[in-house]
Amino acid sequence: MSSTAATQSDGYYIPPSYIESGDYKKKSVSQHAGSKGTNQSQLYGVVRFELPIKSVCTHCNYVIGKGTRFNAKKDTVGAYFSTKIYSFTFKCYECKGKLVMQTNPKDADYDFVSGIRRKVQ
């Protein structure tokens, strides 16, 4: 009959002299120091964004199809009542021009801010 306190629930014994020396605390604190997140969104604000409709780059007139995916920088730019308005900034595949879109919760749509426009059918 062993207690989990004796094994520290890790399956091995840690002697009291090791804990009293302070080495145990130094190791456990330093191994998690500086961690700011585990993925691109938490570290840099970069998300995988998929275009909801067919669009055109205004820099080079390249047609970007619906469903094309980009690594986009996601920023909060405002709010509509309690719903956040997000801005997505990404680059055109052809000319590397800056494209900016925003969510529009009022109309349940997207606003094309700069560098991009809707493709007229």
UniProtKB/TrEMBL annotation:
GO terms for biological process: mRNA splicing, via spliceosome. One of its GO terms (cellular component) is U2-type spliceosomal complex. InterPro entries: Saf4/Yju2 (IPR007590). Belongs to the CWC16 family. This is Coiled-coil domain-containing protein 130. It comes from Triparma retinervis.
